[in-house]
Amino acid sequence: MIAKHGSESLISLKKKFESGDYYFILKSQETGEEIPITKFSDVQKHVLEDKGFEVWYDYSSEKIAKLREFYHKDPTVNIVYSWKYHDLEIVIKTDENNEILTPEVLCWCENEDHNRYCYVLAMWEKTSEGWELRSIGSRLFDVFEEKVTLDLEKVWQGLKGCQKLLDALYEVTKYV
């Protein structure tokens, strides 16, 4: 995910940086060279000043492993909504307190050992106005391009169905 000036607050980026759940890199706009960031002051400097580098971040491999373990092995996680079409899945899960966990659009794959795994294409984030769908970089669009056999109308119906459910859940719970 790219952190451009104004696209995300520095406070939000600092929380992500300090959590250890994300890794941050500087990416040269000219050469594409990637430099790991080890201090938040570097994130701050490059987000605020355009010096020929972009700040990129994504989940760390440790965070991805924790999320996979949590989602696939935790008996307290309940699936509220699941929509599947070919290798795509849209899922809403809740924890033991019926709090909605991050709703996701997943792509399922198989490695050379025939083990199935998934990765996140997009996720919904709760804001003060409701739930917003955010693509993880260009993954969502890349999959749509790669899998030309997908009926995009069906995918659109799945996305809209999930959005409608999230909108209804938000309306029911926003004053609670």
Query: So how many helices?
Result: 5
Termini separation:
32 Å
Total tally of structural domains: 2
Largest β-sheet summary: 5 strands, antiparallel
Order of helices and strands: HEEHEHEEEEEHH
Strand content: 25-35%
Mean pLDDT: 76
Q: Numbering strands along the chain, what is their spatial order in the largest sheet?
A: 4-5-6-7-8
Contiguous low-pLDDT stretches (5 residues minimum) are none
Number of DSSP E strands: 8
Helix proportion of residues, in percent? 25-40%
Shape assignment = globular
Structural class: alpha+beta
**Rg measurement, Å:** 18 Å
In short:
With 176 residues, the chain is an alpha+beta fold. The protein has five helices and eight strands.
List keywords for this structure.
5 helices, 2 domains, single chain, 176 residues, 5-stranded antiparallel sheet, alpha+beta, 3-stranded antiparallel sheet
